[in-house]
């Protein structure tokens, strides 16, 4: 028996990330190859014709899992009955722009969309914020949609997590699926802390080894590796003249899929979630932690040892998030 | 009594021996099944462009060759796009795809073609708003002559080729002519996009899900002379019964006019709405084309592929023409014996005529 379709909202669906994301959702990459979906696509009025073009292409692709498409500029219609909301809509970062430049524009967008989601989305709607500044947009959304449970509002740091896996696998010349349990702490920005202290790799003879030992170069891990991952977004923009779309869309699918279907035993992933004070991180911000997922719920992996180097990095990115929070609130007043 | 007991004991021992042997064989076979397949190398030309950007994540996720088939991606583009192409490679690494076993991003056509098992030729001049397909013909024909030589020299034996860049049928024909050691049957062009569009239009008209409609046919050229034919198409109605689409629609006039022009001109409609050519749906159709070719079509279902004409249905041999095909064991075969009415005959001949004209035009460009 076919499952009941799940409604997935993508905001900013006429843009680059949306265009990469919707075929992935329609093919079952986000929710599994046996889960029918109904896509809700939202964008602003100037993009209405382009959005309709995307709807036409989705129909033209004859996806077996796609049970319906709603393309609209009306936020209430877009939010109606949605079970999963992927908030991609916002101002894209262009070459040379800092993330704070886009803050004030995006904060008012997220306040409005919070109200619509709260009113129209299905109960237990899971929200993933992608548009930058992701953590702070998610915080604003949470503040203005109080009836959506805190734990249902997350932001995307899976892209950074996957980028870290990629960098380690390239360095060790192994396949990326042999590396696991990196952590992205903090803000999806240049202060994020990619941490491999607890990461492991399956070596060529099949044994599991710590990444720190396999790399055998703490200096590289504490400097070049970190800055490469932190600034990867800018490197992509420099090469493509456009923001990452393919990899961001793929990471969004991974984030939701692991959240809904669960993480593999012994493996964790990184998600930006509402801080509960774990690891000495201030509650009241959306901060990226290592999490496992089961039965549709995430839980922060507890008890990992944090050395002094890591402590400083984790605190620095928390500090930036507190500053962004103040800046965001000042924009709203 | 003793004798019977001994015979019974012997029978039990033989039975136990057989069961043990059988169990060992089953376990061995299961072990074989768990072994990971060898990766297949897939080439995408024009990979830095729109369609390439939509296509490569689909390939890397297993949409093209199945969720258990590792792939190595070869991406080719021209020198001005080299930096953007490298950006795509970086993103593929950043996406940490479990099935993606390697990425080669290059502007060197020999390196790109080396060892490829599947070649998806997307590279060419994209059609912009207002441009006719013939406008891009002469530019693309010289590209395909050069790439034919490279594929012939460097690709793996039995490489399967799908030409997407327009004019798709004629580019595929040029490629075939200049890569004579690649079997004719291995060179195809994409009409699956039109096929899927036709399914979409029928499903919208009948208000059913698109997976309930099957066996439309796209005859001929991937252009405005294509003939979307539903004479043999069927739909599963709301009560579960299978019905002919013609009967379900009950409007032959619509099927012979508006439906046909909508599918024929859908590409232009997408360009008008997006200000860009179809990428998402074209990439998806390319995956469907290859997947059905390699893994086989479902029983009772056919698809449309642009293939080297063998004279079936009175269509001139020597052109790449879209036919209804089934696929099995990595080979396509044209569905034979379908009745062709007068209306269809005219349409099928008209699109064949255009292909003959394109063939002449292409050859004149080469001289």
TrEMBL record, chain A:
The reaction(s) this protein catalyses: (S)-malate + NAD(+) = oxaloacetate + NADH + H(+)
EC primary class: oxidoreductase
GO MF assignments: L-malate dehydrogenase (NAD+) activity
Keyword Oxidoreductase in annotation: yes
Entries under SUPFAM superfamilies matching the protein: LDH C-terminal domain-like, NAD(P)-binding Rossmann-fold domains
InterPro entries listed in its UniProt record: L-lactate/malate_DH (IPR001557), Lactate/malate_DH_C (IPR022383), Lactate/malate_DH_N (IPR001236), Lactate_DH/Glyco_Ohase_4_C (IPR015955), Malate_DH_AS (IPR001252), Malate_DH_NAD-dep_euk (IPR011274), Malate_DH_type2 (IPR010945), NAD(P)-bd_dom_sf (IPR036291)
Example GO biological process: tricarboxylic acid cycle
Pfam families from the UniProt entry: Ldh_1_C (PF02866), Ldh_1_N (PF00056)
Residues annotated as domain Lactate/malate dehydrogenase C-terminal: 157-326
EC number in record: 1.1.1.37
Family stated for the protein in its record: Belongs to the LDH/MDH superfamily. MDH type 2 family.
Name by which UniProt lists this protein: Malate dehydrogenase
Residues reported to bind substrate: 93, 99, 132, 163
PANTHER family in alphabetical order: MALATE DEHYDROGENASE
Amino-acid positions noted as binding NAD(+) in the UniProt annotation, renumbered to this chain: 12-18, 43, 106, 130-132
Sorted UniProt keywords: NAD, Oxidoreductase, Tricarboxylic acid cycle
Keyword Ribosomal protein: no
Residue span(s) of domain Lactate/malate dehydrogenase N-terminal: 6-153
Residue numbers annotated as active site: 188
From TrEMBL, chain B:
Keyword Iron in annotation: no
CDD domains: MDH_cytoplasmic_cytosolic
Root EC class: oxidoreductase
Catalytic activity: (S)-malate + NAD(+) = oxaloacetate + NADH + H(+)
SUPFAM superfamilies named among the record's database cross-references: LDH C-terminal domain-like (SSF56327), NAD(P)-binding Rossmann-fold domains (SSF51735)
Example of a GO MF term: L-malate dehydrogenase (NAD+) activity
Active-site residues annotated for this sequence: 222
UniProt keyword terms in alphabetical order: Membrane, NAD, Oxidoreductase, Transmembrane, Transmembrane helix, Tricarboxylic acid cycle
Gene3D superfamilies tied to this protein: Lactate dehydrogenase/glycoside hydrolase, family 4, C-terminal, NAD(P)-binding Rossmann-like Domain
Residues the record lists as binding NAD(+): 46-52, 77, 140, 164-166
One Gene Ontology term from the biological process aspect of the record: malate metabolic process
Domain Lactate/malate dehydrogenase N-terminal: 42-187
Pfam families: Ldh_1_C, Ldh_1_N
Coiled-coil segments on the chain, per record: none
Occurrences of domain Lactate/malate dehydrogenase C-terminal (ranges): 191-360
Keyword Membrane recorded: yes
Highest taxon listed in the record's lineage: Eukaryota
PANTHER family: MALATE DEHYDROGENASE
Family of this protein: Belongs to the LDH/MDH superfamily. MDH type 2 family.
Protein name: Malate dehydrogenase
């Amino acid at each position: 028996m076919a499952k009941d379709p799940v409604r997935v909202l993508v905001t900013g669906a006429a843009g680059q990330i949306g265009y990469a994301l919707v075929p992935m959702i329609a093919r079952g990459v986000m929710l599994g190859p046996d889960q029918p979906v109904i896509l809700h696509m939202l964008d602003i009025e100037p993009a209405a014709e382009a959005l309709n073009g995307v709807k036409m292409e989705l129909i033209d692709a004859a996806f077996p899992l796609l049970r319906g498409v709603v393309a609209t500029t009306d936020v209430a219609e877009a939010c109606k009955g949605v079970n999963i909301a992927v908030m991609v809509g916002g101002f894209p970062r262009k070459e040379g722009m800092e993330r704070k430049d886009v803050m004030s524009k995006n904060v008012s967008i997220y306040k409005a969309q919070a109200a619509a989601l709260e009113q129209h989305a299905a109960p237990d709607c899971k929200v993933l914020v992608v548009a930058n500044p992701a953590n702070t947009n998610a915080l604003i959304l949470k503040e203005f949609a109080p009836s959506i449970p805190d734990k249902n509002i997350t932001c995307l740091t899976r892209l950074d997590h996957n980028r870290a896996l990629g960098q380690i696998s390239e360095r060790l010349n192994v396949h990326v699926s042999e590396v696991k349990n990196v952590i992205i702490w903090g803000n999806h920005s240049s202060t994020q802390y990619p941490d491999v202290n607890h990461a492991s790799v399956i070596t060529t003879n099949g044994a599991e080894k710590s990444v720190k030992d396999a790399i055998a170069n703490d200096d590289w891990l504490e400097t070049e590796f970190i800055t490469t991952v932190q600034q990867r977004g800018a490197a992509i923009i420099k090469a493509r003249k456009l923001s990452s779309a393919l990899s961001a869309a793929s990471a969004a699918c991974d984030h939701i899929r692991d959240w809904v279907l669960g993480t593999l035993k012994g493996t964790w992933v990184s998600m930006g979630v509402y801080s509960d004070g774990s690891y000495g991180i201030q509650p009241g911000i959306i901060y990226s932690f290592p999490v496992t997922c089961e039965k549709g719920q995430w839980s922060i992996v507890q008890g990992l040892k944090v050395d002094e180097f890591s402590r400083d990095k984790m605190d620095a990115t928390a500090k930036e998030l507190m500053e962004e929070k103040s800046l965001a609130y000042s924009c709203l007043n």
